[in-house]
Amino acid sequence: MLPAAIFIQILGGLSLLLGFYCRSGTVVLIIFTIPAMIKMHNFWKESGDLKLIEKTFFMKDLATVGGLIAILILGPGTISLDAFLLRHH
User: Fold this and answer.
1) Do the Cβ atoms of 46 and 30 come closer than 8 Å?
2) Distance in angstroms (rounded) separating the CA atoms of residues 49 and 21
3) What's the rounded Cα separation, in Å, for the pair 23 and 46?
């Protein structure tokens, strides 16, 4: 399972970084991140300091999903491989 997670994160991250199939990469990362944050950072089952730590990581992942949704809506931008290929096609 770990190799698949690493592959998804690297491929999705490169997609965003390069702006190549940006929206597809964003959807893949959203679909990966939401279940991962629920499974890995279930702060509602913890107590004490661990609850605070897990809640912090959960909120960080939630903010990441929010950023991914913004990219999904706004698109890759003018400095991206998607825009370059669209101009030269």
Assistant:
1) no
2) 40
3) 35
- What 3-state class would DSSP assign to 80? coil
User: What are the tens digits of pLDDT across the range 14-57?
Assistant: 999 999 999 999 999 999 999 999 999 999 999 999 999 999 99
Give which of 34, 56, 33 is closest to 43, Cα–Cα.
56
pTM above 0.85? Answer: yes
- At 88 the pLDDT is 87
Taking a C-beta distance cutoff of 8 angstroms, is the pair 9, 30 a contact?
A: no
CB contact at 8 A, 19 and 76: yes
Question: Which DSSP symbol is given to 1?
Answer: -
Run of H or E including 13: helix 2-18
